[in-house]
Amino acid sequence: MSYKNFEELPIWQEAFEIVKLVYQITQQNQIKNDFRLVDQLRGAAISIMNNIAEGFDSNSNKEFVRFLFFSSRSCSEIISMSYILKEIYNLKDVSEVLYSKTLSCRKQIKGFIKYLNSK
């Protein structure tokens, strides 16, 4: 791996885009008072990027992969919650953007896991 720090990783950059999107969404009037949902969305988004960062600084590919699996699971949480945004809060457009960005990120993470496992 030729990256010197985690900020260079495309998957970390994509994860940070998800964090920014989640913060934009959770500041909207429709959901900003649903503290549980806001906390859960923000926590899952932050978990994606932080686990990538933490895994990057681990001592082995095996350990990095373990943290990437945590990131992938956090992506699944956000994908699941995007249905709440769409169906309960009627935020169809933003929920679809969040869903597609997070699905793409999860696919990239899984691809990176395969790459690391092949090393």
Write a structural description.
There is one protein chain. By secondary structure, this protein is mainly α. It has a single domain, classed as Up-down Bundle (de novo design (two linked rop proteins)), CATH 1.20.1440.60. Helices cover 77% and strands 0% of the residues. The chain has four helices and no strands. The chain has helices spanning 10-26, 35-56, 61-87, 92-117. Helix 1 (10-26) packs antiparallel against helix 4 (92-117) and helix 2 packs antiparallel against helix 3. It is elongated, with a radius of gyration of 15 Å.
Class from helix and strand fractions: mainly alpha
Distance between the termini: 10 Å
Q: SSE order, as H and E?
A: HHHH
The number of domains is 1
CATH topology category name: de novo design (two linked rop proteins)
What's the CATH first level? Mainly Alpha
Q: What's the mean pLDDT score?
A: 97
How many distinct beta strands?
A: 0
Rg over CA atoms: 15 Å
Q: Which ranges are low-confidence, i.e. pLDDT below 50, for 5 or more consecutive residues?
A: none
Which homologous superfamily in CATH is the superfamily? 23S rRNA-intervening sequence
Number of helices: 4
